[in-house]
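U., I forgot to send this yesterday:
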Amino acid sequence: MDPRAVVVRRGYKSYGNTPVLADLNMAVSKGSIYGLLGASGCGKTTLLSCVVGRRRLDSGQVTVLGVAPGTSGSGVPGRRVGYMPQEISLYSNLTMKENVFFFGKLFDMNNKELEERLKFLVQLFELPDSNTKLNNLSGGQQRRVSLVVAMVHDPDLLVLDEPTVGMDPMLRLTIWEYLMEISRARGKTIIITTHYIEEARQADTVGLMRNGYLLEETSPLDLLDKYGCESLEEVFLLLSTRQDEKLDSSQSINAHEEERSSGSYELEKLGQNEIHTPEDGACRGSRKKCIFSEVSTAKIVALLHKNVLTIGRDTMLLLFFFGQNLLAVASFYMAFGFNPSDLAMAVVNHDATSPSRTCQGPRALGGCNFTDLSCLFLDHIGGPVFRKEFYDSPEEAQRAVGLGKAWGAVYLGENFTQAFEERIQGGIRVADDAVEQGSIFTWLDMSDDVISWAVRDELYTKYQDFSHQFLGSCGVNPKYGDLPMKIFKPVFGKSEVDCLYAIVPGLLLFLAFLLGVSLSVWTVVHERVHGLLARSMISGVTTFEIMLSYFLCMFVMICMQAGLIVVFAFLLFHYYNVGSLALISLFLIAQGTCGLLYGFVISACCNNEGEAIHLATGSLYPSLFLCGIIWPVEGMNRYLYYLSMVMPLTLPIRALRWIMVRGWTLRNTEVLVGFLTMFCWMAVFLVACMVVFRFKKL
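Result:
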């Protein structure tokens, strides 16, 4: 039996062109404490990550407890190793007990075992009540909780990265005493890094590491005797000086590269670099069988329970996720789609018979009275839409529009009433002058399309009302005042103009997609950046289990979100809809799920929250502009039109619009195509997740 617990042979690791580990050899005996000493940035954390199976060497070999990390059934990553990273890497909104129980469940521990171990370790490390939330503990107490998590399952190998930083000297002594006890009495192997070099004298073996090289590896006493020094710091300084004098770092790296390329790495033939993560272990069947053979129901349940607790206690996330859609639906309903009102209109009326050229109150219509017809028309354009402001000349009225004091100018000439009478009585034989003088002249401010079109529509409508009323009083068929075109009741929708038809379906689906993306990005990237995902995976959880637990938890939230949107939009605010609410809910759930998977892709590609936010917003804005929410895709450039038709939102938005306005179902081809489009994009995002996760770790 090999007496060594950890063996690293000719380990080499680089990030880009920067070597982190260079031709490193290391051996840790079973049942011993190994003190790994070195300055920050020398490669200690990277080396430990390779030992616990989190990262892999570019070349060389690592064996842990007799097997390569990641080999199926090796327990590394998994129950045989306990790892405490430099960062706290615990869930701050969970209690100390909940954190310990979560990781303990990943190690297949039952509640009784966890209760006993937690009680013992809390007393040993002088921690407060285990029901205290982690974010209510001091930094030193949080580090001790992190140490408890690493030790709770009583592993064969403990890997502790700076466990005593910031702790009280007496507590550091207690920890070292306990580590020496479990090492010598129970055969536990411990690798520990520390900033306090002199405390490493208590280790059985120390390794002095600098610039990716292990300078020496022996017992503390042998080191002091060999180099005639009184402290380990003096030994480290001496070896560092000799390294600088002996080797130029660039020559050393080049020599190492030559040696690697010469084929002298006989240990590489063992295929170590092919085995590094649990799902890449010894399973030799199909990829699908390998993934599902590793799945643990107990771990998924633990992950789901953790997700429910962490998300449920994240007030800002819940406010954003559930409050954002309700706020958007409510504000959109209250602010959008109403006709503009109280619009200033500059009026010049030279037809009025009063000396002041103004109308004296509402004009009473009695019989076919051809007097002051201009006043009758102006009575019609009063009301909530227009606020009439009278001017003396057309030039003054136009100047008011040019200065932004009015949205339009209306001019009725001196002979408007007489000319209008001639137009009615003369028919097609009316003189050109009568046609000209019987016209209403308008000048509009077209700088705001919505308002200008509302003004134009209101003027047309009110003129038609005026002509109907007057012609009817003269015993003439009012329809003579209409355009020679009969527009019947719409096949779909309502007669009045309503922009909500086009915008609401896009708004609802975009909200569902956006919030799905936000939920997954916010949660996954946060846990990844703070080392929580890495710590879970070192505990033996696979990528598939983590993503499945996220998906199940967030899918429930997506369904809740869809239900709230439907209730608010259609039952509370009564958005126009003639379709099935169940089908609308199904579309919202599918689109939210699509966004959820897209968020997973973003989370896998980005290293921090900033990158994720930039990628998410940078990709969603073009989708917002091109998917037909703001402007119909039929009005776009042909190339943009074809691009928009293959985007995740365009066809689903069109399908949802036909559901709401036309009452269509999945039996209609366009609705079915929109629904299937979402599933196609789900498949694309799912494959992208698998590819990215295969080449880039969580």
